[in-house]
């Protein structure tokens, strides 16, 4: 999308349910996205306009969340982000997370499984929940997704809502790992592409054993990787021509 097209989406993005501080953060960051990022968003037609849905993204950079939120909003949904609980303890970011009704995860403790209960409840109440199944930035040297954690599978199988695989690429150039300030110039290109819902229907009535959760997780990560392969292949092709 061009900057003009991106700006036009400002008036189309849903505002109800965003909360004051989350909404303010969006309004502050949105002009930066419009001016400094060549953002291309595709596959929004796969996101249902209402009802519970999981948006599952690969994880490259701290800027992934901004691009993912933009994808959700331009798809007509206000996302609830599943994120590390330490963010809630930060002065400004904590207000944003609480305001937006996001869902904290206590990493490395037994509380991590408990965090999925409000996520499942949110999905059953028709919310859009945004998750990075890898749980952290990929450690693959070429940026490919790692094996995902089972949380996304458990949420999907307990709530039985659609899981939309979404791949991001270019966010690692906008805000490389280990940096605090984004690299806005030269203008960065970021692609966000969604695919059709991952078919997990044959697993819905099965006991949630480790094998079932592993299978569901593998399907989600395979779908995300397929979407990412398409982005990278398209970029390689455009560079050769």
What is the CATH-assigned architecture?
Answer: 3-Layer(aba) Sandwich
* Helix residue percentage: 40-55%
Largest sheet: 7 strands, mixed
Shape: globular
**Widest β-sheet, arrangement of strands:** 1-7-6-2-5-3-4
Order of helices and strands: HHEEHEHEHHEHEHEH
The number of helical runs is 9
Number of discrete domains: 1
β-strand amount: 15-25%
Detailed description of the structure:
By secondary structure, the chain is α/β, with parallel strands linked by helices. Helix content is 42%, strand content 16%. The chain is globular. It starts with a helix and ends with a helix. A 7-stranded mixed sheet has the order 1-7-6-2-5-3-4, sandwiched between helices. The chain is built from 9 helices and 7 strands, in the order H-H-E-E-H-E-H-E-H-H-E-H-E-H-E-H. It has one domain: Glycerol-3-phosphate (1)-acyltransferase (3-Layer(aba) Sandwich). The longest helix is centred in the last third of the chain and has 31 residues. Pfam families: Acyltransferase. GO terms for molecular function: acyltransferase activity.
Task: Give the SSE layout.
Elements: H1 3-9, H2 20-36, E1 37-42, E2 53-57, H3 64-74, E3 79-84, H4 91-99, E4 103-105, H5 111-114, H6 116-124, E5 128-131, H7 151-159, E6 163-169, H8 171-174, E7 188-194, H9 210-240
Keywords: Acyltransferase, Membrane, Transferase, Transmembrane, Transmembrane helix
Protein name: 1-acyl-sn-glycerol-3-phosphate acyltransferase
GO molecular function: acyltransferase activity
Short description:
With 241 residues, the chain is of the alpha/beta class. The protein has helices spanning 3-9, 20-36, 64-74, 91-99, 111-114, 116-124, 151-159, 171-174, 210-240; strands spanning 37-42, 53-57, 79-84, 103-105, 128-131, 163-169, 188-194. The protein contains 9 helices and 7 strands.
């Amino acid at each position: 999308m061009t900057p003009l097209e991106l700006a036009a989406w400002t008036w189309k993005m849903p505002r109800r349910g965003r909360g004051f501080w989350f909404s303010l953060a969006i309004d502050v960051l949105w002009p930066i996205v419009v001016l400094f990022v060549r953002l291309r968003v595709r596959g929004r037609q796969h996101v249902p306009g209402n009802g519970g849905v999981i948006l599952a993204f690969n994880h490259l950079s701290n800027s992934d969340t901004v691009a993912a939120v933009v994808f959700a909003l331009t798809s007509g949904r206000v996302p609830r982000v599943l994120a590390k609980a330490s963010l809630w303890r930060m002065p400004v970011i904590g207000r944003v997370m609480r305001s937006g009704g996001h869902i904290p995860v206590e990493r490395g403790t037994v509380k991590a499984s408990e965090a999925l209960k409000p996520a499942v409840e949110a999905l059953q109440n028709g919310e859009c929940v945004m998750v990075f199944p890898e749980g952290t930035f990929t450690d693959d040297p070429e940026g490919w997704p790692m094996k995902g954690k089972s949380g996304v599978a458990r949420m999907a199988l307990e709530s039985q809502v659609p899981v939309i695989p979404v791949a991001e690429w270019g966010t690692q150039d906008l805000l490389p790992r280990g940096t605090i300030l984004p690299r806005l110039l030269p203008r960065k290109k970021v692609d966000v592409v969604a695919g059709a819902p991952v078919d997990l229907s044959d697993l819905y009535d099965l006991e949630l054993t480790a094998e079932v959760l592993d299978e569901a997780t593998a399907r989600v990560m395979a779908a995300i990787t397929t979407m990412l392969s398409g982005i990278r292949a398209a970029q390689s092709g455009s560079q050769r021509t």
